[in-house]
Amino acid sequence: MARTHEKYESLIARCKSLPLIPAAVAHPCDESSLRGALEAAKLGILHPILVGPRARIADMAGTCNLDLSGYEVVDAPHSQAAADLAVQLAREGKAEVLMKGSLHTDELMSAVVRSATGLRTERRMSHAFIMDVPNLDRVIVITDAAINIFPTLEDKMHIVQNAIDLVQTLGLQQPKVAILSAVETVNPKIPSTVEAAALCKMADRKQITGGILDGPLALDNAISRQAALIKRIDSPVAGAADILLVPDLEAGNMLAKSLTFLVDADAAGIVLGARVPIVLTSRADAVTTRLASCAVAALIAQASREATAKAVAG
């Protein structure tokens, strides 16, 4: 049966009533990145500012029969310069979203994390996959599967808080966070179980706010109510997790890709914890997935606008 992608479509639909958010698209010099940015504009999700070699962007638009009229193109000689200029636009407030084009992720992120000219905040940056899994009744967030390779306990505190803030922006006020490991009991020989217990206590002490945390939990206990019942795990998170915090990047990457390639899930990606949300897309992403990533970024940017306006109003 054909997928309907109703979870992603609802995210996209929410953006159509919002003011257009300006997005700096770094080096959109292939068809997928350029078409994705322009499609997001047509649907009223984002207003792209195209940053890269002007002639290459124009040639690609001509080859793909795409109309660039009405869109600003900021000329940059090569991909690293495009990344630097796109980040500069975000620092100056001219763009409220940063979007990866056809350059390598490392090029974009090197500009983002630069101490003097980048987009760092007091938060640790982290990546979140917003997963549309066919047999689940909700979107689930997997974090971090792309940036933090072996996160420390302090890193995980930031990663969890970033994910909670994201899910709240998407409309769920108290998301359930499962801190994953191989087992559901604390075992000093498995460091991720000890860190899971510490994170739960940090939530008790309000060092992490806005979510309901439990862990360690194995993946089956986090996702399946039946598995949690069989193992007699009494927890408001078990079987109902909205956020899956993985032990490290390898585990998260394998989990996200397993869902994508084994059960036909879609994985929209976003980088959190910077001054602006950062859309990381892949050439292999389906159109709906790309648009969902843009929609999530737009919703975060709009929430930031509203928070700033509220603070100014006193």
Q: Could you give me the name of the CATH homologous superfamily of the largest domain?
A: Isopropylmalate Dehydrogenase
Share of residues in strands: 15-25%
Helix share of residues? 40-55%
- Indicate the mean pLDDT: 93
Count every beta strand, where a strand is a DSSP E run of 2 or more residues.
11
Q: Are there runs of 5+ residues with pLDDT below 50, and where? A: none
Our Rg estimate from Cα atoms comes to 20 Å
Order of helices and strands: HEHEHEHEHEEHEHEHHEHEEH
What is the count of distinct domains? Answer: 2
Reading off the top of the CATH hierarchy, the class of the largest domain is best stated as: Alpha Beta
CATH architecture assignment of the largest domain:
3-Layer(aba) Sandwich
Structural features, described:
With 314 residues, this protein is an alpha/beta fold. The chain has helices at residues 6-15, 31-42, 54-63, 79-91, 105-113, 153-169, 191-204, 219-223, 225-230, 249-262, 287-313; strands spanning 21-26, 46-52, 73-75, 97-100, 126-132, 140-143, 176-180, 212-217, 243-245, 266-272, 278-279. The chain folds into 2 domains: 18-120, 3-Layer(aba) Sandwich (Rossmann fold); 123-273, Isopropylmalate Dehydrogenase (3-Layer(aba) Sandwich), CATH 3.40.718.10. The protein contains 11 helices and 11 strands. The protein has an 11-stranded mixed sheet with strand order 3-2-1-4-11-10-5-6-9-7-8, sandwiched between helices. Strand 7, helix 7 and strand 8 (212-217) form a beta-alpha-beta unit. The chain is globular. The termini are far apart.
